[in-house]
Each structure stands twice: as structure tokens, then as C-alpha cells.
Known about the structure:
It is built from 3 helices and 20 strands.
Amino acid sequence: MPTEAQTLMAVTRNVAAAAIEGSRFIVLSSDPVMAKTALVGTYKADGRTRDEVFGGITSQERVEVLADGNVPLWTGVFIAEDRYILFEGEQLSFHEIDIKSGKPILHRSLPWDLPLPPRDRGGEATRWEVSELRDKFKKAFHSSSRVKVSGVARIPAKWVEAKGLALAMALRVKDFPLGIAECNADEPTQCQLTRLCPVPGLGISPDSVTGIVAREEERMLVFGDRKKHRMRGFKFNSCHSVTHSRDWLLPAKIKELSHLNLTADGSLIVTTQTPDDYLNANLFLWKKEEW
């Protein structure tokens, strides 16, 4: 269990996602009243107390991230050099927020309906195989839960031979748990779902897939399993070859997993919908060497 200094006190309800980058952090909520704003503040990795690490309540502020429309279901967030990048998992849209002004800049939809099967030793799939996969995926997609993408992780472009940036996406779509999106190197939210990767032995029901992170040194993708209160790691040899590697059980005190993310130094961020009974927190941080 993390120490108190490695947790953020529950100052917002139903935390949906969070990110820490450099000296900044951002927390998103799934609560209907709070979901159109974000909690932002300063982060100090070497702080010795909770207030030193995350700042006191008076040093945190709320910024508007969505002015109108339906209540968003946030499932991903990153901090870029000058903007926050948010991902909405039902409508499959990216939203960019200017850090300095706190104002929305733009939003883009993720084209999702033209993915390819994984390439194997024989090369790319045939036209018939591509058509069959897309038909099956579309049917499963439309019959799945509201949230289609439950987590987004940046991965090295070389893992998937992407020309620009690459993202791994945890999907709540039956028989299709993992998608790869490729993005423009100069426009990080100009992305398209390009591949669907099989994950044999995933062992997580579609509606329980919650979050994804990438351990670059081990070439591993880690999925969150909300119902079984655990994380499952899979070696990503290629989109065609994803094999189980190891599992982590989450502490019993941590309840209702909602999101996984990583800091730049590989520390693990876990958020929950419900605060724990021990530290009254819903953001927990494990240093790289602790997990």
C-alpha cells in the first residue's frame, strides 16, 4: 500500500482518470456534476508529505474542459508540453486544453471503423480477411457497453512500426480487447485506429477491462481488471504475438479501480471511483521500483 505522501486526498468524486507530468497533475471525474471540469495542481516528486507532493487544497484549481454537450466519460489523459490531452471513451474523441489559459483548444474524433488485422510472417491480411474482421468488429462494437475504449497508453512507435506516434487502447469490445492507434507526429490528437491485436488468455471480461499502461523496458502492456481487483501484464512481441507475463493484485483497501497511467519516470498511477477507508484517497502512486 502506498504511503500517505503517495496519495491524493479525495477532493473530487468518482475519479475517472489522472496524469502526472513534470511539475503538474490533472484529475478528471466521472461525476455528472464535475465531469466537465478538471482538477489541476502542482506536483513535487521528492515531497515528504501529501501536501508537499500534491500541494494543499488551496493550491489546486478547477478548469473547464468541456463547455457543452453530454456528460463525458473520460478514460485517458496525458500532459503535453503546453496542453492537457483528454480522451473520451464513449464518443471516442480527443480534447486539447491549453495549460496556461485553461481553455479548450480543439477536439477531434477517432476514426475507428477501418482497422487491419495484425500482420504476420506471411505479410498483410488478404482483402477478404480484412473485410471479415471489420464486419465482426463493427457488430461487436455496436453491441458493447457505453464505454468502448477504457484506457489509452502511449507506446514506442517502433513497437508497431508507426510513422508517427502510437497508442495502445484497451477496448471493452467482445473478442477485441486491444487496439493500436497511430497519430500524426506533429498533431498528437490526429489519430486513427489502425490495428486490432488478439490477446490470448486475457482472462478479463469486456466490461471489466479498465485502463492500460506500457512498461517500455519490458515491452509489456498492463491491463486493469476492475472486477478481480488486479492488473495483468502481457509481453507485446508484436500485434500478432501478445503473451501473458505476470499479474499484480491491488491492495484490498483500494476500491473500484477506474484508471491506470504512468509518470515519465515509470511510476504507476492508480485511480478509483471510491475513496479508500484508510487514507481517504482516490489517487495512488507507486514508484517504478515498487511495482
